[in-house]
Amino acid sequence: MELLYQYAWLIPVLPLVGAMLVGLGLISFNQGTNKLRQANAVLIVSLLGAAMVLSFAILWSQIHGHAPYLKTIEWASAGSFHLTMGYTIDHLTALMLAVVTTVAFLVMIYTDGYMAHDPGYVRFYAYLSLFSSSMLGLVVSPNLVQIYVFWELVGMCSYLLVGFWFDRKAAAEAAQKAFVTNRVGDFGLLLGILGLFWATGSFDFEVIGERLQDLVASGALSMGVAVLLGVLVFLGPVAKSAQFPLHVWLPDAMEGPTPISALIHAATMVAAGVFLIARMFPVFAGLPVVMNIIAWTGAFTAFLGATIAITQNDIKKGLAYSTISQLGYMVMAMGVGAYSAGLFHLMTHAYFKAMLFLGSGSVIHGMEAVVGHDPALAQDMRLMGGLRKYMPVTSVTFLVGCLAISGIPPFAGFWSKDEILGSAFGANPALWGVGWLTAGMTAFYMFRMYFSTFEGAFRGNQKEIQVQLLGEKDGKVVGAFGPGAMDPKELGHGAEAHGYHSDSPHESPVTMTLPLLVLAVPSVLIGLLGTPFNNYFEGFIYPPGELHPEVMEVASEFDWTEFAIMAGNSVGIALIGITLASLMYLSRKVDAAAIAVRLQPLYQLSLNKWYFDDIYDTVFVQGCRRLARQVLEVDYNVVDGAVNLTGFLAVVTGEGLKYFENGRAQFYALIIFLAVLGFVIVAA
Amino acid sequence: MDLATFPWLTTIILFPLVAAAAIPLIPDPKGQGRPIRWYSLVIGLIDFALIVYTFSTQYDLSSSELQLVEVYNWIPQLGLQWSLGADGLSMPLILLTGFVTTLAILAAWPVTLKPRLFYFLVLAMYGGQIAVFAVQDMLVFFLVWELELLPVYLLLAIWGGYKRQYAATKFILYTAGSSLFILVAALAMAFYGDTITFDMRALGLKEFSLSFELLVYGGLLIAYAVKLPIVPLHTWLPDAHGEATAPVHMLLAGILLKMGGYALIRMNAEMLPQAHALFAPALVILGVVNIIYAALTSFAQRNLKRKIAYSSISHMGFVLIGIASFTDLGLSGAVLQMVSHGLIGASLFFLVGATYDRTHTLILEEMGGVGQKMPKIFAMFTACSMASLALPGMSGFVAELMVFVGFATSDAYSLAFRIIVVFLAAVGVILTPIYLLSMLREIFYGAENKDLTSHEALIDAEPREVFIIACLLVPIIGIGLYPKIITQIYDAKTAQLTLRMRGAVPSLAQAPVPMGSSPAGMTTHFYQAPQL
């Protein structure tokens, strides 16, 4: 067993090796490497597969009670300062390793089908592998600095992958937005880390927690400062896990290829924020104010995400807001101290949301055969409908995902969400109220998505809708084109890449449907690990510092009546949501458009994402540009102007003085001598 | 021949100079400068090999003392000595000089205008730059500092861009004018007190009066502020960098800026500690101004070269904060930031040059979508920009982190001051990706710019260019992954220097250096960890 732990560093290193090899190949022998398309993919997938096997071996040994493992080496030092790096393996790490490697592995297999025709196929695999490596490095980090290192690295991978199709302007902007927004969070995280180090002299989570408690208890550090440091650290997760007010980057990040949306922007990287809160739990737990802020941020984000998701027409954007909302649940759980419930939801969500995103990718892949490669067409649900007939596997797995996320028993999402809601009720009924309402909205928007995508009649061939959507995309007046006047370039692009143009979508290749089917299994079953009457999950994942038997005791005091009331409430509102969705989008008995007109202000608020993008653009983006331009003007006109003025004056005075110059070296020496003399006299 | 007493540094300095003198004798039948290029490259490689050999066999990492000392009387009547030596401050910069200059020669491959003169000047710079870092005599230091300006002036004025005359004149007036302060300070310090000496170590031991130190410090600060540069004495730099060709650019950003930082530590901080204690808060404030001001101007710049030039200024701000932190870690970070920026700045400027060779424009609006035809340059540019925005795993991150932690835990400043400075410096951490990523987006992303592709053939990077960037990225990533490879060269020196600097601050003179296991604030009642 020890051998396994000694070589655990291979888990992040293996995918890194894959990325490096393929990356070097791409730089040095570009054409050759690109020709060996699947050979590269096989190399990378098998390296990650090896990492997955190691991860499961570690999970297995941790479940069987192996002690936590820590190994570090000295990384940087100056004088008496020493900073170590290394890896740590405990229950939380083992769980995250297993989740990340499985999702990454399946996404990589899926990628082979999804990116089959893309000229950047090999590059995409290299990036994927690099990301997996950074993410795995993040979860094994034993201290805050190393977390920060990998935190930024996953951010960079996200940047590269969102901007993968770099010829698309929108992708370029989204990539930059993602990176910069995350940097704002990292700014807080960095300040928080520095502050905590200043206060406690350590980068280790538990040491920081203990010492901070001592300092606050002894009054050496005022509570206000401690809270400030906690909030600064929390800014990191706010950005990474797309919480209000830094959530704006995640929907835009959907410009990246869909496997990325599934892996990075749904299952793993965005969950890193929740993971960090879990790691910092010893610190946050001692700061009730910070815990409250975390809980309410999460609750508000859950609500915000759900309200926006209701009106999105882009299938990926809808799922993105749903992710924001679900991340809000996890953060809220952390905030109310429901440590294991939050992580449980993280795990279940990783599986079913990855499946949903991969399903949406499958749908887009099918739609592209009909409408071409323009995301404005291929991803819009108004052009879909009736896809169940053409894509049976995709539709069944998507339905499973919808049931799971809506919290219908016995699917995975029910158990984890119910546990969060239960804990929230215990902490503050208002939080529970928000969460409960959001659960209803979740069921509604997910089934709205399911019904408009897979049920009804296929609308993909209706040219009027296509024209209208293209018009919306370009911001032009709708109807200015005649029917069929699509952008010819886009059609050409689609036809070129596929070689044919069909009238009906098709089911995706087996490399894409297989991961969907595999992910459906945990989406249905994994929740059973954490049932309230027999909670294996909580027996494995519990807050640091809490003793194992304590947890089990709590679990044994299970109350059926209470469970029935709580579960009944959340299932009830979910069913209401589903019913509403079916009335509006399946049987069309209720006209959604009419409701939208009736509730125009609310509809517009939701459709325009609460106007966050517009406000941020005006205040921050334009403001920053204006400020920079003004500073540059000052630099040109004032600072450099003064220099040029000096030069001008020198010329003028020089012209005047030149008659006094006599060209004798002694005279110059005299001046220098006098200057030095004066200097010494003045000083002495 | 005894290896231990062999004049290594003199050889390293004179070898390129002597070799440069032989350039007129090299036959160049085709007039394209091909033999001269190879000759210079070989000379550069030999000299770099000499530096590496000397470093690995004759240099003791654990010592904080001056090593490889050579003293020859030059003009005894003036007390002038050719005195060389290297310690933890000089050694990393000498290594950097050898490395970057050799790569710059390789980067200058396409230069065909007056190749003899060009390579003569580059080789002259090679020796001159190393001399600046190795000389231990104030007066000789002034001489080599001045001599260094001449090749740069000519390289700018002859091979520069459209406004090269203006830029070169501005450069020479700025730097030559300001370096007069070095001469005056050197003379004043030499004649102060009973003994007359120009030897830096002897000068460091002299006890100056406080007002004298302040005066000299102020004078030297102006000289080095121009070189580093410090806002508002920076305006020569965008012009000079904006007009220089890529190889000259690499030298300017990679090495010449470091001369300012080096001299600031070597003279201001080490020889005038009392004045440094008083000036330090001003340095910190100037550092913060550098970071934010230059980041904003860089963001607004539409000219690619000037954009990167301003980003250099921004990065130098961390050097200032580190120098003034009075902690091991901060000072160590400052030195590392110089080395790191030397590598990153050189690589970015080289790539800017490579991009310009293809697009023939530096205006961002006239580019766009270039990445489709030049994926390798795109990839390398992205990697180097990531290094510049202090991505972890690359050297810039380590340096900035060390400065941050060093300053945040410094006990020389009040808590409020530290909070404000760290906060503002961290704002720079947000601004840097904004301007760098916007730049990448405008050059490489998006649809191809038809106006550009219609008349420019955009050819991807050739192996020579990939090789140069690979050479620069290896140490950048190497330091980022394991910073001790560089920090161990100067750890002993910075520790000793920190003690000396702290000795001049009354409140710190007795206190232990506040790093590592003993955390500290202004007050000592913070958590006292058990000594590990």
Automatic annotation (TrEMBL), chain A:
<keyword id="KW-0812">Transmembrane</keyword>
<dbReference type="GO" id="GO:0042773">
    <property type="term" value="P:ATP synthesis coupled electron transport"/>
</dbReference>
<feature type="transmembrane region" description="Helical">
    <location>
        <begin position="260"/>
        <end position="281"/>
    </location>
</feature>
<dbReference type="GO" id="GO:0016020">
    <property type="term" value="C:membrane"/>
</dbReference>
<feature type="transmembrane region" description="Helical">
    <location>
        <begin position="187"/>
        <end position="203"/>
    </location>
</feature>
<keyword id="KW-1278">Translocase</keyword>
<protein>
    <submittedName>
        <fullName>NAD(P)H-quinone oxidoreductase subunit 5</fullName>
    </submittedName>
</protein>
<feature type="domain" description="NADH-Ubiquinone oxidoreductase (complex I) chain 5 N-terminal">
    <location>
        <begin position="75"/>
        <end position="125"/>
    </location>
</feature>
<feature type="transmembrane region" description="Helical">
    <location>
        <begin position="323"/>
        <end position="344"/>
    </location>
</feature>
<feature type="transmembrane region" description="Helical">
    <location>
        <begin position="215"/>
        <end position="239"/>
    </location>
</feature>
<feature type="transmembrane region" description="Helical">
    <location>
        <begin position="147"/>
        <end position="166"/>
    </location>
</feature>
<dbReference type="GO" id="GO:0015990">
    <property type="term" value="P:electron transport coupled proton transport"/>
</dbReference>
<feature type="domain" description="NADH:quinone oxidoreductase/Mrp antiporter transmembrane">
    <location>
        <begin position="141"/>
        <end position="431"/>
    </location>
</feature>
<dbReference type="GO" id="GO:0012505">
    <property type="term" value="C:endomembrane system"/>
</dbReference>
<dbReference type="InterPro" id="IPR018393">
    <property type="entry name" value="NADHpl_OxRdtase_5_subgr"/>
</dbReference>
<dbReference type="GO" id="GO:0008137">
    <property type="term" value="F:NADH dehydrogenase (ubiquinone) activity"/>
</dbReference>
<feature type="transmembrane region" description="Helical">
    <location>
        <begin position="122"/>
        <end position="141"/>
    </location>
</feature>
<keyword id="KW-0520">NAD</keyword>
<keyword id="KW-0521">NADP</keyword>
<keyword id="KW-0472">Membrane</keyword>
<dbReference type="Pfam" id="PF00361">
    <property type="entry name" value="Proton_antipo_M"/>
</dbReference>
<feature type="transmembrane region" description="Helical">
    <location>
        <begin position="293"/>
        <end position="311"/>
    </location>
</feature>
TrEMBL record, chain B:
<dbReference type="GO" id="GO:0048039">
    <property type="term" value="F:ubiquinone binding"/>
</dbReference>
<keyword id="KW-0874">Quinone</keyword>
<comment type="function">
    <text>NDH-1 shuttles electrons from NAD(P)H, via FMN and iron-sulfur (Fe-S) centers, to quinones in the respiratory chain. The immediate electron acceptor for the enzyme in this species is believed to be plastoquinone. Couples the redox reaction to proton translocation (for every two electrons transferred, four hydrogen ions are translocated across the cytoplasmic membrane), and thus conserves the redox energy in a proton gradient.</text>
</comment>
<keyword id="KW-0812">Transmembrane</keyword>
<dbReference type="InterPro" id="IPR003918">
    <property type="entry name" value="NADH_UbQ_OxRdtase"/>
</dbReference>
<feature type="transmembrane region" description="Helical">
    <location>
        <begin position="338"/>
        <end position="356"/>
    </location>
</feature>
<protein>
    <recommendedName>
        <fullName>NAD(P)H-quinone oxidoreductase chain 4</fullName>
        <ecNumber>7.1.1.-</ecNumber>
    </recommendedName>
</protein>
<feature type="transmembrane region" description="Helical">
    <location>
        <begin position="212"/>
        <end position="234"/>
    </location>
</feature>
<keyword id="KW-1133">Transmembrane helix</keyword>
<keyword id="KW-1278">Translocase</keyword>
<keyword id="KW-0560">Oxidoreductase</keyword>
<dbReference type="GO" id="GO:0008137">
    <property type="term" value="F:NADH dehydrogenase (ubiquinone) activity"/>
</dbReference>
<dbReference type="InterPro" id="IPR001750">
    <property type="entry name" value="ND/Mrp_TM"/>
</dbReference>
<dbReference type="GO" id="GO:0003954">
    <property type="term" value="F:NADH dehydrogenase activity"/>
</dbReference>
<keyword id="KW-0793">Thylakoid</keyword>
<feature type="transmembrane region" description="Helical">
    <location>
        <begin position="277"/>
        <end position="296"/>
    </location>
</feature>
<feature type="transmembrane region" description="Helical">
    <location>
        <begin position="117"/>
        <end position="135"/>
    </location>
</feature>
<keyword id="KW-0472">Membrane</keyword>
<feature type="transmembrane region" description="Helical">
    <location>
        <begin position="466"/>
        <end position="483"/>
    </location>
</feature>
<feature type="transmembrane region" description="Helical">
    <location>
        <begin position="171"/>
        <end position="192"/>
    </location>
</feature>
<dbReference type="GO" id="GO:0016655">
    <property type="term" value="F:oxidoreductase activity, acting on NAD(P)H, quinone or similar compound as acceptor"/>
</dbReference>
<feature type="transmembrane region" description="Helical">
    <location>
        <begin position="38"/>
        <end position="56"/>
    </location>
</feature>
